Amino acid sequence: MARILAIDLGTKRTGIAVTDPLQLTANPLETIETAQLIPFLKAYFAKEEVETLVLGLPIRLNGQDNEMTPKVRSLKLELERIFPEKKIELIDERFTSKMAMQSMIAMGSKKKDRKEKAGNLDKVSAAIILQSYLERK
C-alpha cells in the first residue's frame, strides 16, 4: 500500500508528515524551506510510493480565508500539474499549530527547546493534519 503525505505550508518553512505503508499512523518526517518543497517531493517520490497528498488549508475561525489560504490553493494547482497521478486533498488545519505546541509540551519539551526547534512544530503540525485526515477516512 502506498503512503499518504501531508504538507503544512508556511511562508519560510514547510512541515512534512507521512503515514506508514499501511496508512495506520501519521509520523512527522521533515521540516524544509518552502522554496525547496517541489524538489523535496520529487526526490521523496522517487524512493517512496505516495498515493495521496494532503494539504492543510488555513481558515479563520469565522470560516474566511486568511493570508495563506490563496497560497495553499495555488500550491494545490501546481501539485496537480506536476504530479497528475497523485490524489491531492485539502483539509481544514485550524488549531493544528496550537495542538502541535500542546503535544510538544506534553512530551516534556522545554520552552527553550520549543523556541530553538521551531521546525519541529511545523512537522508535528503536518502530522496532526495527517492524523485528522486518517480519522476522517
Q: Can you describe this structure?
A:
InterPro entries: RNaseH-like_sf (IPR012337), YqgF (IPR005227), YqgF/RNaseH-like_dom (IPR006641), YqgF/RNaseH-like_dom_sf (IPR037027). Keywords: Cytoplasm, Hydrolase, Nuclease, Ribosome biogenesis. The protein is an alpha/beta fold. The chain has one domain (3-136): YqgF/RNase H-like domain (Nucleotidyltransferase, domain 5, 2-Layer Sandwich), CATH 3.30.420.140. It is built from five helices and five strands. It has a five-stranded mixed beta sheet with strand order 3-2-1-4-5, with helices on both faces. A hairpin with a 4-residue loop joins strand 1 (3-8) and strand 2. It is globular.
Short note summarizing the structure:
This protein has 137 residues and is of the alpha/beta class.
Question: Beta-strand percentage?
Answer: 25-35%
Overall domain count = 1
CATH superfamily: YqgF/RNase H-like domain
Alpha-beta classification: alpha/beta
Q: Describe the strand arrangement of the main beta sheet, using strand numbers.
A: 3-2-1-4-5
CATH architecture: 2-Layer Sandwich
Question: What is the terminal-to-terminal distance?
Answer: 15 Å
Instruction: Classify the fold: give the CATH topology.
Output: Nucleotidyltransferase, domain 5
- Specify the biggest β-sheet: 5 strands, mixed
Pfam families: RuvX
Keywords: Cytoplasm, Hydrolase, Nuclease, Ribosome biogenesis
Enzyme class: hydrolase
Organism: Algoriphagus confluentis
